[in-house]
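Issue 218. Parser rejects a valid record. Input:
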Amino acid sequence: MTLTEACCNNQPTSAEWQRKGTDKPLSTKVDGHEYLVYRTGPKDSKRGVVAIADPFGLHPTSIQLYDRIAESHGGFQLAAPGPPGMMAWIGANGDFKKNHIDQIILATVEELRADGCTTFSIFGQCWGSYISLQAASEPNQPFLSAGGPHPSLTTIETVKDVKCPLILLASKDEADLAPVIESIKHKNFPVESFQTRFDNVHHGWCGSRGDWSDPEQFEAGLKVVHLLGEYFAKVAAVAESNQ
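Output the parser choked on:
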């Protein structure tokens, strides 16, 4: 697996953020192991979001992104499962099925469902965005949308089987994603897929390589919060209107 070069060759920042959510164990063990999940957002929301972190795990900037999304556009119950977040672990073990990441994601969805959620989206940063696309390509997958900021490994080939619309938010370090979005238009999803670029910030600015004490990164980060929250609310509203 080859991740974006900018991610592989740079270390996480020392950014800080006071968490608004809590860690809790998933009630379902996966392959005999207990996994923690970071939970944030209003507990009475019926709209669930699964977040998959980049290779460095639940970094403070990722947590800030999650907390802010969870509070946006009417609120979401957001859950971020936490397999070991180390680059070496991703390289050796970060396979969607072989390492049970698919099962961890589904267990996270069921946790949200048990807490009252009736609609679900999934997103991630870098590798996490790629994982969200794989989850959204599974038969009978539960997600209304997938994608995320500064996505890695996102090509026409990797999205050919997706079963929901995508929101892709590229940094200056990613290729043009417009052809990727164009390639799935024939699927006629109830909400159009969306992509835009942030050419003033680097890969990872919404995750482990981000430091939102920098005004430029913070402004771009808040725009991502708005776009993702708006999109998740939109796909949920469409689904709710059809129930």
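Fixed in the parser; the record now loads. Residues 113 and 175 are 36 Å apart (CA to CA).
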